[in-house]
Design goal:
Number of strands: 5
Structural class: alpha+beta
Radius of gyration: 26 Å
Strand content: 15-25%
Largest sheet: 5 strands, antiparallel
Mean pLDDT: 90
Oligomer: single chain
Amino acid sequence: KMVDDYRKSLITYQYERELVKQKLDTIVGDEEIEKYYNANKSNFELKDNIIKVIYVKIRKSAPKIEKVRQWYKSNDVKDRELLASYCHQYADNFYLDENTWLLFDDVIKEIPMKLYDKEVFLQNNRIIETQDSTHLYLINIKGFMTKNSASPLSFEKNNITSIIVNKRKVELIKKMREEVYNEGVENKSFELY
């Protein structure tokens, strides 16, 4: 009986999975994401510090270092284009998307600096230049949010999308089970034990 029950539950699971695959709407619009975020803002608290940053790691022997020092500080579109072109040729590592939030800990892993109080550091530093024996590290912090503050929507977008899709999946499975049950009652094709 246990083997038979297990077999039936596996068949049910497989059937539900295939139906979900066919019927689940996985497209979540920006408006729905924003609505969910606003309704549940208290659930989106940062566990880590995040930053928006321009970051360049170049060898000390690279050409035009003074120009790079000007470009990474500038907000001018032309300077950003020149910096991007330069980085593709000479940088050992770089990140130029100042509109995307990154975990601060991931960024500082790339830089030879010891930080004892990250929040104080973020509040007091925007333009950072440091070096080791072979490389120069240029960092322009364009924005930051410290842990325990409300997480920005753009940082939580993928999580919210997953939450919404998962809720849809649960509702779809519940609805399918109710339909099967109601159909069974209507056709008198089930038994209660």
